[in-house]
Amino acid sequence: MGATRRTSAPRPTAGQIDALVRASRAFVGMAAASVAELDDGVTIPQLRVLVMVHTRGPLNLSAVADALEVNPSNASRTCDRLIRAGLLDRREAPEDRRNLTLTLTDEGRRLVEKLTRQRRNAIERVLRKMEVPDREQLSEALDKFATAAGEPADDSVTLIWHPTR
């Protein structure tokens, strides 16, 4: 049985990269504006944790640390602050009491949903300025980009991009 050969796509052009960098500035601007509207003192890493738990379901500290690319003690401190703020809940996992499971509180869920609404409204305002065929093409391309970046396919609330490893 022969080995399967993998062919790689040609390297992206500078123009392609520049276009995505420019678009990312627009997305970051919309993200920053929606975070600023929250006015609740939650940091970007804390929001990332809340969004991860919202989109992926209950997580343990190891998964949070891996996703944030920090050591477990930093992830633990971030989660402890969210627990004290009443946004995150920590419980022993039923299958392994040594493993802690992190879930959103009702207040944490409301915060993520509010941020999502603000972000969606900002994106809708921009999309309304585009022609319908361009929107469709953009949507398909960004869906493929998000998949390549490791974002869940059915996720409509991922707010803060985390790089793939």
What do these coordinates show?
The chain is mainly α and 165 residues long. Helix content is 59%, strand content 9%. It has six helices and two strands. The chain has helices at 14-38, 44-56, 61-68, 72-84, 106-127, 132-148, and strands at residues 88-93, 96-104. It has a two-stranded antiparallel ribbon with strand order 1-2. Helix 3 (61-68) crosses helix 4 (72-84). The longest helix has 25 residues, at 14-38.
Layout of secondary structure:
Blueprint: H1 14-38, H2 44-56, H3 61-68, H4 72-84, E1 88-93, E2 96-104, H5 106-127, H6 132-148
Antiparallel strand pairs: 1-2
Helix pairs in contact: 1-5, 2-4, 3-4
Brief overview:
By secondary structure, the protein is mainly alpha-helical. The chain has helices at residues 14-38, 44-56, 61-68, 72-84, 106-127, 132-148; strands at residues 88-93, 96-104.
Q: Which class best fits the helix and strand makeup? A: mainly alpha
pLDDT averaged over residues: 85
Counting DSSP H or I runs of 4 or more residues, the number of helices is: 6
Sheet with the most strands?
2 strands, antiparallel
The quaternary state of the protein chains shown equals single chain
Helix content: 55-70%
- Unreliable segments (pLDDT under 50, ≥5 consecutive)? 1-5, 155-165
- How far from one another are the termini? 31 Å
Order of the strands making up the biggest sheet: 1-2
- In terms of DSSP E residues, the strand content is 5-15%
Task: Give the C-alpha Rg.
Answer: 19 Å
Query: Secondary-structure element sequence?
Result: HHHHEEHH
Tell me how many strands there are.
2
Shape: globular
